[in-house]
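Contributing: when you submit paired examples, paste them exactly as shown. First protein:
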Amino acid sequence: MSFKLFEKNTPRWIVFSIDLSICLGSLFLAYLVRFNFSIPAVEIELWKFAIPTVIGIRVISFFYSRIYQGIIRYTSTADAQRVFYTITAGSIVMALANIISYFIIGIYLVPYSIIIIEYFTTVFLLTAFRILVKTIYISLKNPSREKKNVIIYGAGESGVITKRALDRDAGTRYKIIAFIDDSLNKTGKTLEGVHIYNADGDLEDLLRANTVEQLIISIQNISPQRKQQIIEKCLTYGVKILNVPPVNSWINGELSFKQIKKIKIEDLLEREPIQLDHENLRKQIKGKTVLITGGAGSIGAEIVRQLIPFEPGKLIVVDQAESAIYELELEITEKYGWKNIEAVVGDIRQVNRMRRVFDHFHPQVVFHAAAYKHVPVMENNPSEAILTNIEGTRILADLSHEYAVENFVMVSTDKAVNPTSIMGATKRIAEIYCQSMNAISKTKFITTRFGNVLDSNGSVIPRFKKQIDEGGPITVTHPEVTRFFMTIPEACQLVLEAGAMGKGGEIFIFDMGQSIRIIDLARKMVMLSGLTLGKDIQIIFTGLRPGEKIYEELLADKETTLPTHHDKILIAKVREYNHQEITKQIISLTEMFRSQNNEAIVMKIKEIVPEYLSANSEYEKLDIK
């Protein structure tokens, strides 16, 4: 039989004729079974009433329900239900017709035993016919040996729904060979005909013994550590990992195979959810006017999103990027339904513009996320770095003091710790100024410091993704370079929490977990993409860029930090500066912008931050002097 024949839709009259033939066959089979394959002549005589009655009712019910119009090769549970309802309704009508005929002509048109047997036989055969056609079609379209083997992690309700979504939407391409589950009570049992294995004891054996194409994580409440263990094991055997999205994102409450997405590198770096003091945060934010600088950037925009549940009175989002701030405003108003947002296009370095913003809106809380952050770029543009990272911060801090802002929270970086770059050193000076302001102001000046943020603008993750999509090579600066990583939501949650707990003058640092080798990150991203390192794509080393360190520091040890009530937030013990002294130094530094003398600017920065020693930079010669 040609496969192309199955690809064509069978004419409705043929399906209708086959269904009617099945009904007629079921009727004869019912008589044979009822009378032990020896039908009495008297019953055959009554066929002149029985056959027209049964076939007539079936024809009418088929026309009414139109079960013959379904495409047989795509038969689903809904089609089987329609067959059941149609045949059930027809059999009920037959039973009623029997009662009527008995009272009118004194005989039953069809014996009740025949009606019952014919009913069950017809339902079974009509359903079986459709399933048989679908099975043959699937087998011809994609023979079993050509199907890709899939394992589902999670033998609960979500696992069953995942299997059904796979069968319904992609069953022609995939074969589910096993469920795995952490529950020992489920091990050894079967679920919808598929054997359940133990995740710890049997997964590796399954991966070793079978050519497994994909493993789908269907469990909704899996811990990050457990997810990482499963993913790492699968990556060892070159198995692609997919993840079932949260139930609340299913379309109309139903899971589609297209919604099952590949695991991202961010999933490998997840940690346990952060526990926030929602009551304290709500007290700090509810009903207040909150200003966010750099609000269209990845960190600033996420702060805006996370502030919404705490019901601020108004959100003032400041950024230079016109298109990005417009997109954010649309997202907040349309997706979140939040109307109390004001998008302000402005440069934090322009004091008159910022004064207008403070004078008009009178913010009560300020989150300062605006900054230049790309290390190599700022290494070549030190005058711009001091103007934005230092002078821009000073302008905002001074206005916050002048307009009696309650809390000023600055977003800083781990690169400010023992800086080796202009970017890191300028952020350190901004930290120093904010901390010094706390001694002269009623405003609480709080600094938060953390490492690299996954998927933020310009971070290594989007760069590697782009390089992988383009076929490589992946560029890594040094085989030993390591970085601390945190997701954007996690970083912003800690910024909010630190802002709420701060008393003023603190530099909060976040527990970033273990540092990660960038080359290991690149390798895992290649594996998650289903590619083979060295065969499909290469990694090349380009050398450290100007200002870059091999290892980042957070000062997150007991000798240099103090604990807080939150186990992921510590307070850095750092030298404090006199406000008047640091102000004089900063004014002197920013006045050097006019000269555009990079060496003189960097010398002045090193004077203010003595621990700043340049790395892989032309300014190393200034350290030697």
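Second protein:
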Amino acid sequence: MFLTRENTPRWLIFVIDVVIAISSVILAYLLRFNFSIPASELKPLPQILFYMVLVRSISFVIARSYAGIIRYTSTGDVLRVFATVLSGSLVFVLTNLITFFIIDHFFFIPFSIIIIDFLATSFGMLTFRLIVKLAFLEFQHPERAKVNVVIYGAGEAGIISKRTLDRDAGTKYKVLAFLDDNPSKQGKKLEGVDILSPKKIDNLLATNTISQIILSIQHFDSARKQALVDKCLNFKTKVLTVPPMIKWINGELSFKQIRKINIEELLEREEIKLDEHRISKELTGKVILITGASGSIGSEMVRQIARFAPKQLILIDQAETPLHYLELEYPEYNQGASVEIILCDICNETRMQKIFQTFRPEIVYHAAAYKHVPMMENNPAEAVLTNVKGTKIVADLAIAFGVRKFIMISTDKAVNPTNVMGASKRIAEIYTQALNVKNRTRFITTRFGNVLGSNGSVIPLFRSQIEKGGPITITHPEVTRFFMTIPESCRLVLEASAIGHGGEIFIFDMGNSVKILDLAKKMIQLSGLTLGKDIQIKYTGLRPGEKLYEELLNVAENTLPTPHPLITIAKVREYSLDDVISNINELTGLITSHSNFDIVRKMKQMVPEYKSQNSIYETLDSDLSQSSPCP
């Protein structure tokens, strides 16, 4: 009856505790005298029983040991009960000391009775609470209604994960087994749960209905992680992951922090090893300016650079709201560097000049750019204004104010460009490379493909479409892309900037290209949905300027190795600075004409390998096929 009430009445808990105290005293006497109490000990028993129960009752009232909600008994409640019983027993000891000195070496309560009573009362009160809690849990969620969970990792994080489930969600989940790679642990039990070899995962999934597998290993080989997730998805078993210990709240793991594994984690590679000493020498104590600082790449650059303790960070962006969020977030990882958050368009030459004049940056990371292919295809003037003229303004100011290194963030779409965006970035590459020849400032370009989870990229789009119930839109069933996580791409940018001497275009190893259709299917599975039943995939056709396959190197380019295995240097054609400046001035002069075809025609003259695809500008390619390329 009381299991169905909101809370068991406090008076009832108090009465039960008193009954336990009475029973403990009687049990103590029976055990002390082997269930045959002598007449000499029976005579004072009523007075002793009354006194001991009175002390216990008073201690219960003072400590309010009956006030806790029994069904939610925790470690704190256990300690409170233990302390309450111990304090009463100490009163009995004090009573004995008083009677010993006042009444001619007389102990009012035998010490053996005090000890046995203490043990019996503690055991009785705690057992009562445990029985009520277990009975309530079973009544509310019978064993047959619980879902099975497997924890991968029988180390400290695995133990804490199990205890977190027991504490926060034990009413719904039952830990069926631990999986661990350590042979010395396999075959043993951990808190009553079997520890099995990961080789038994197939049999475990086939013979049991397992709702979730929780990955509690902090460093899990990415290939094995993908293989495990694929197996689990075949059995409709969800895969969850435990966050790193540094993200636990006050050193404790919360059940709400155990989250579903996401697609980014499945596509990431092994952690990239950096030359921390070289990068630290490059950045520590320096004044560093970052354009596009609130974007996906720019903001991650800020986070990673901040840990190397620069002297000052100047963070520039024209996007007001993201810049505001960056300003709020920055104190979380600031290592003591002063920071200037500046709302500014890099194309505003006067304001940019004032910024360089005021702060005198030593290193510039240029991440500001327009990047969306269809948008730039429809707005080539804006692509030229920001990606070309904006880059020229920042690069020229870097030279004028003695910046030591200028690192430009480029894209794989600059290789054999098929769209306005890629061509604009290639022109920016050509300009910064040409500048490197005659100036003290060292210009370095880093080129890589799509980054996972960046603003407006395919993964956030798919995720949003899945949340809305679909359909997921894909341009073409055969389209593929290279992907890299934002943190690893930024780590490689830092490494490349540290080893660069100027004039290089660094190419990052993007791994294997990923078929977008396969990516969408995996995201659907991770969401617990079924393709064709819960959600559909719709093909929309390639967008203007879009490629089926991305490239990282021009066909005429070769690469050179670097000290880092994931970074190579592209050997590219050198351009005359005077010719490049002349062509860029002519190109940027066309911005005010608002003639998209004139702008794109000039871009194609400057970048002969620029051939449009799925675009209205394809007609220009045939017109220029007989023309000689610009120098």
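If you have annotations for the second protein, write them as plain sentences, like these:
Residues 1-5 have pLDDT under 50 and may be disordered.
The CA atoms of residues 175 and 517 lie 35 Å apart.
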